Amino acid sequence: MHEISLCLSTIELIEQQARQHGARRVTAVWLEIGALSCIEEHALRFSFASASRRTLAEGCQLHLSVQPARAWCWDCSASIVIERHNEACPHCGSHVLRIESGESLRLKQLEVE
Ligand SMILES: [Zn+2]
Ligand SMILES: [Zn+2]
Q: Where along the chain is Zn(2+) bound (predicted)?
């Protein structure tokens, strides 16, 4: 369960940005979950709700989308998209991949008032 610590740092970032815009309240948040981040959506929603308590983001709408992961295949030098861990390169079947994105949680957009 790393969702709690991810949420705490995300809330920190959200509050920082909200303050920069002189917001009194955050009404909606859009987060992108990397396909390889091992983040579970229900756990994330639950953690977000508790981490946002008594912050500017308390009670805001949470929009989640899953972002596919990008990787580089060492064997055939292709840039590929993967959805899960241990997936093989669709071109050559190799498992020797370098993950380039899709392992993290990203703050995409904020709506404030
Ligand atoms: Zn994983
Ligand atoms: Zn390949």
A: 73, 76, 89, 92
- 61 neighbors 30 (Cβ within 8 angstroms): no
73 is in an annotated binding site: yes
Structure token pair of residue 106: 């990203």
Domains and CATH numbers, the chain: 2-112 (3.30.2320.80)
Return the residue matching tokens 């669709």: 90
Beta bridge partner(s), residue 73: 97
Q: Mind listing the pLDDT tens digit for each residue in 40-78?
A: 999 999 999 999 999 999 999 999 999 999 999 999 999
Q: DSSP per residue over 6-53, as a string?
A: HHHHHHHHHHHHHHHTT-S-EEEEEEEEETTS---HHHHHHHHHHHTT
Ligand 1 center from residue 37 Cα (angstroms): 6
Contact 78, 88 (CB under 8 A): no
Is residue 42 a known part of a binding site?
A: no
What pTM, to 2 d.p., does this model score? 0.85
Integer-rounded Cα Rg, in Å, for the chain is 17
